Please model this.
Amino acid sequence: MKRHWEIDALRGLMLVLMTVTHLPTHFTDPLGQPFGWVSAAEGFVLLSAFMAGLVYSRYARRDGVESMRSAFWRRVLKIYVAHAALLLFLFTVITALGIRRMEPAVTNLVSWYLAQPAEGFVFGLLLIYEPALLDILPMYIFFMLLSPWVLAFALRHQRWGWPAVMVASGALWVGAQYGLSEWLYGWIFALTGLPVPFNEMGAFNAYAWQFLWFGGLWLGFTRSAPHARPLRLHWAVVLPAVAVALVGLYWRHFGEHGQAPFGADIARNLWVDKWQLGPLRLLNLVALGVVAIRFGPTWARWLPRVRWLETMGRASLPAFCAHLVAVLTVLAIFGDSQTSRPWWADTLLLAVVLAWMWAVARYTQNADAAPPEETVQPPEDLGSAKAIAPAGSAGLT
Model:
């Protein structure tokens, strides 16, 4: 059985970059958003959506829509259990340790839970209360719950299904840029008296990020279609994408304002805002995607394989959970200062955390072994079906 190792390695790299971003060390700022105005979260969500569209649409074509839906529900249940376990770890071990050490990095993180412990626990399990760092899995679950309906709709309406989905998704993204989330929260609060404050419902604007998810799902769906033609990008598309990617890279690392592209100008910074998935950020991500599709196969042939990244990419859900356990523990013990330790100590800390993530991934990577007949295309020809990979490749495995 042959794995789609390039996707595994990319997902492993996204996990490493997430860890560097979340772990408070000297490396956080220099290595945050290393490729331009795009973070590891965008790359990981897009890759996960692509693999979900690729794998689950094949379930539907081979075994029927109901089989595909069942596969999605099983995956969602597994991710929900992992999220619930992380919440319990935060609310018990980390909270107790943070209170004992009087560590603001923890007490601020769970301030609403400390003020309303019963409601915090219940609404946390309902995926409504989302403390910082624990807000990506609820969004991921939400997208996974919608995906089987979207894929079934696209399969039923082959000619216009996806255009309709993406037009609706694009409209939601535009609405998110103009306060759709806040408006809906205000309406729900007036109707139900929801006690969870808006700022405690996660930093990611799901109404914006769904556009990225469904775009990746669409791409994966098209690559799984029988007799799909390989993706071939014209230089009229590639050259502008390379230019945008290079401008983003230069601006990010050599601009005068660091990770705030427009300095103190809050309004203009929204154009590259991560949580809203601002338009310039989306443009930078598309440009990087075009560059990866055009040049990635060549790089994959010449660059050495990094096996430990592939290991973490194959077991991305356990590795992701391991990284959060490590980050929360570090925050509870050392706080959130990025400069309190010398460089050598931060290097050692980062190495230990990455080794912990690799060990967890290595131990659990066979837990989701897939049927050997499940197929996935190799990246050098995204229209063929010569390589096979486990269905666990779809999303957070």
The first helix runs from residue 5 to 22.
